[in-house]
Specification:
It is a single chain. By secondary structure, this protein is an alpha+beta fold. The protein has a domain at 58-179: VirB8 protein (Nuclear Transport Factor 2, Chain: A), CATH 3.10.450. Helix content is 38%, strand content 28%. It has helices at residues 11-34, 58-73, 80-90, 96-112; strands spanning 115-127, 130-141, 144-159, 170-179.
Length: 180
């Protein structure tokens, strides 16, 4: 009588089965890691939306560009300092130096001339990270209306990591102002 245990599976067969299972699990893990992930939308949002990594929703680009334009050309001598500081936080790091100097020069001219400005947005168009804002701009000098014109602001944006002062994760690379 043979008291040896019967061998149901042989070591090469077990090794092959384990290697095959590991290969399937690794392929599933790679596919799962490469698939785009949904990001939870903030509960206080006004409408349902899905955000995908690397994509900028049109609504976010529109909102950021409108905030930039309103901070840029809505000021009085009393509010100009705060508006300039807000604008500097919205600028791209690669254009910050030149834009910061231009904003400081504009601030000095507006303070000396007791100038104020008001912008009323009329229409907004979005083309990727390029936002065009049509607006009515009023320039005041010493509390009197000096000029009223229709203006087109073309704001170029770029993605950057979101921060507490800039939760949009966007920055202004350039702007072009065209008066009609």
């Amino acid at each position: 009588m043979d008291l040896q245990r019967p061998r149901l599976l042989r070591p090469p067969l077990i090794a092959a089965a384990l290697l095959g299972a590991n290969a399937l699990l690794a392929a599933g893990l790679v596919a799962s890691a490469l698939a785009p992930r949904r990001i939870l939308v903030v509960p206080s949002a006004r409408a349902e939306a899905s955000l995908w990594p690397g994509e900028v929703p049109d609504a976010a680009a529109r909102e950021f560009a409108l905030r930039y334009v309103l901070h840029f050309d809505n000021y009085t001598p009393a509010t100009l300092e705060a508006a300039t500081e807000s604008l500097k936080r919205m600028l791209s790091p690669r254009t910050w130096t030149a834009a910061s100097e231009a904003l400081d020069r504009r601030r000095l001219v507006a303070l000396e001339g007791r100038m104020g400005s008001q912008v009323l947005p009329l229409e907004t168009r979005i083309d990727g990270l390029r936002v065009t804002v049509q607006a009515l701009r009023r320039i005041y000098v010493s509390d009197r209306l000096s000029r009223e014109t229709r203006v087109r602001y073309v704001v170029e944006l770029e993605k950057q990591p979101p921060t507490d002062p800039n939760p949009f994760g966007l920055a202004v690379v350039s702007q072009d102002i065209q008066e009609n």
